[in-house]
Amino acid sequence: MNLLIDMGNTRLKWAIESNLDIVPGKPIDNAKINRSALIQLWRDMASPNQLAISCVGTSQLFDLVVVTVNEIWPRITVIRVLSKAQGFGVINAYREPEKLGVDRWLSLIAGYDRYRKALCIVGCGTAITLDRVDASGRHLGGLISPGLRLMKEALALNTENLGLNEIPYPFGLATFTDAAIYNGVLSAACGFIEHALKSQPDAPQLLLTGGDAETISAHLSMPAIIDPDLVFRGLSLTLRKQS
Fold first, then answer.
1. Is 6 annotated as a binding residue?
2. Is 11 known to sit in a ligand binding site?
3. 212 belongs to the catalytic site
4. What is the DSSP letter of 98?
5. What is the per-residue pLDDT across 217-236, written as a single tens digit (0 to 9) for each?
6. Is 104 labeled as ligand-binding?
7. Numbered ranges of CATH 3.30.420.40 in the chain
8. 134-171: pLDDT as tens digits
9. Which CATH number, 3.30.420.40, 3.90.79.10, 3.50.50.60, 3.30.470.10, labels domain 2-80?
10. Rounded to two decimals, what is the model's pTM?
11. 94 annotated as belonging to a binding site for a ligand
């Protein structure tokens, strides 16, 4: 049994992996992470053999998680996964490969390993990330945009008399402000993805992951596969290579 941890900009996601089966646990907001919360989260779990961890958040939170994990399970092997120039059939397009977000790299290697075809992989989280990989595994580069919540927060912080509302509304033209914001940012996200795909000649398979994947997918004009565990699958791949 292995523990997989994906530390994002907003939340820590984790899962248990055993014999290639991945069972996600309950995420925890970064703002709520402390030693006591992590111990409570994992104290009743049997000791994992290995921990594979990816982190795009702060180094302070990463250090806290690693110290606490070693306190709970002193014999666990901790492996921090970083982006590479190539691996698992994928060639990284970045001139400085380590600067590609590790969550994007893990999605690339997991997506290509699973589907073995030209892909457009979209991470629908705090940021919306879009990466292309061709049928041979060559990463063609990517795009980054604010995610749904970040777009709403930008409006709330920089515009008078607008609050932050998480209520979903029917999609379409709105007759009151909260619904107009909800549908405006959702339209922006869908337009971002659809515009990027229009310029691609090889008709890649669209693959969505991340917390807002289902919300965005429901309003796209093209079919998409939703794979919520893509980053975890990438972490699991790296552990298989270690063994």
1. yes
2. yes
3. no
4. G
5. 999 999 999 999 999 999 99
6. yes
7. 2-80, 116-228
8. 999 999 999 999 999 999 988 888 776 676 777 888 88
9. 3.30.420.40
10. 0.93
11. yes
